[in-house]
Amino acid sequence: MFDKLMQAQQRAEEIKARLNNISVSGEAEGGRIRVIATANKEIKEVQISEELFTEGDKEQVEELLIVALNKALAQADSVSQTEMAAASQDLLGGLGGLGGLGNLFK
């Protein structure tokens, strides 16, 4: 049982490392604002079109930035949940269902 817990911890660390290498993005205003993040929800880059600074006001740019950030973070959540679900399925399968308890998660 202890070996299984160690494997689960190692698997979680592997997933976290993999999520650090997966890029997600969120855009607003047809791509005029773009946010790039990791699947671990770390913002890596923000791109804002020069046009928005010349034609838009500060509040508009801030609102669009929030939209792009939230889209990127939602995409990161989705990728992370998919990875964790796959890992959970692997772990439950590896534990032999824990005497039937695995059926509770199906």
Molecular structure report:
With 106 residues, the protein is α+β, with helices and mostly antiparallel strands. The protein has one domain (2-105): Nucleoid-associated protein YbaB-like domain (Ybab, Chain: A, 2-Layer Sandwich). 58% of the residues lie in helices and 17% in strands. It has three helices and three strands. The protein has helices spanning 2-20, 50-55, 58-94; strands spanning 23-28, 33-38, 43-48. The protein has a three-stranded antiparallel sheet. The longest helix is centred in the last third of the chain and has 37 residues, at 58-94. The radius of gyration is 20 Å and the shape is rod-shaped. Residues 101-106 have low confidence and may be disordered.
